[in-house]
Design goal:
Blueprint (H helix, E strand, L loop, with lengths): L1 H14 L6 E14 L5 E2 L1 E10 L1 E4 L2 E18 L2 E19 L4 E17 L5 E2 L7 E12 L4 E10 L10 E13 L2
Antiparallel strand pairs: 1-3, 1-11, 2-5, 3-5, 4-5, 5-6, 6-7, 7-8, 7-9, 9-10, 10-11
Length: 185
């Protein structure tokens, strides 16, 4: 079912490519978990990459759906040992972009994520996916600066709204993101 959803999304994006600019997005994340029992966790630097499309909605308003692979995670400090937990997601943010000038927009919108893998970075990268739910939902807020006709830079903050841990604690993904977007058509 998940593969069918992704294939359908790619077909829709491809069918609209002639009408709406599409491109590649790459960037970095500084992520962590918030919530119960997160005192011994610290932020971790990771990346995200994928595709986006811009859809004109009004004079100063655009909708930007994205399909990205994003690595969230955190550092776990326990008894003097530090391990990196990497949460690999396929995410679908849909950003509403309000342009206050020709070169600058404020952006906000929902995001859904599907957990692909979860690895603990100690030893042989132990699989810890059973410790996490396979879905995530939250909201993004940020801004975009248009550098040229083909290149822009964006900064945003992701605020997860659903519990992502399958343990007694309630924990939520949080990520600060910086990215560059390159239009390819």
């Amino acid at each position: 079912m998940r593969i069918l959803f992704i294939l359908l999304l790619l077909a829709v994006l491809n069918g609209n490519a002639q009408e709406h600019p599409m491109g590649i997005k790459i960037g970095g994340n500084i992520s962590n978990l918030s919530g119960d029992g997160t005192d011994n966790l610290s932020s971790m630097v990771n990346f995200h990459a994928g595709f986006f499309m811009e859809i004109d909605a009004a004079k100063d308003f655009k909708i930007q759906p994205e399909l990205l692979f994003s690595v969230y995670g955190f550092k776990l400090d326990s008894e003097g040992n530090t391990s990196n937990v990497r949460l690999n997601y396929i995410i679908l943010p849909v950003m509403a972009k309000y342009f206050v000038s020709e070169k600058f927009s404020f952006d906000a919108g929902p995001q859904v994520g599907l957990l692909v893998t979860a690895k603990n970075g100690t030893g042989s990268l132990a699989d810890v996916k059973s410790d996490f739910y396979d879905r995530d939902f939250g909201i993004n807020a940020g801004a975009t600066l248009v550098i040229s006709e083909k290149v822009s830079a964006s900064v945003r903050y992701y605020f997860g709204l659903t519990d992502v841990t399958a343990i007694d604690n309630k924990n939520f993904n949080r990520a600060f993101q910086l990215a560059f977007q390159f239009k390819i058509n």
